[in-house]
Amino acid sequence: MKGKKKNRPEIKFEIYETTDKSIWKMFAKHHYLNNSHNNAARVFIAIINNEIAGFLSVFHFPHPKVKNLKKVHRLVILPDYQGAGFGIKFLNEIGKYYKQENYRYNITTSAPSLINALKKSNDWSCNFIGRQKINNKNTGNPISTRKTNSEKRITATFELK
Prior knowledge:
Layout: E1 14-18, H1 24-28, E2 42-48, E3 51-60, E4 69-77, H2 86-100, E5 104-109, H3 112-120, E6 124-130, E7 155-160
Parallel strand pairs: 4-5
Antiparallel strand pairs: 1-2, 2-3, 3-4, 5-7, 6-7
């Protein structure tokens, strides 16, 4: 049929949690932002056919009004495994775990392919899309000293339903 995507093959993968934060070095060069990683984040690795294929880290997001929020810190799928929908499946599996533990689970991204995939998914709701201004708390100026200023990129925040 014209315009219809071919069915993707079922991707079987295993997920492991690791305390070895140095595994991030393998994925850092493939992440679209900077190569830093928050050591407080929990790290999950996805294995396909006995090969490491994906990295996902999550941290507790302290917020005075929003309780029990877990936020995806980094999601990286190695190039050989990109484009097959595996990243969303990996993201969803970790999300199911947190939802069962009564946490809210969200991700903020400016990666166009991830934004498009999450917008199409019935499992996710979009809470924000656009350009975020980052204000310096001391002066109120829209200037940030952070290395990863997303002010110039379209950014979207999604929450698992």
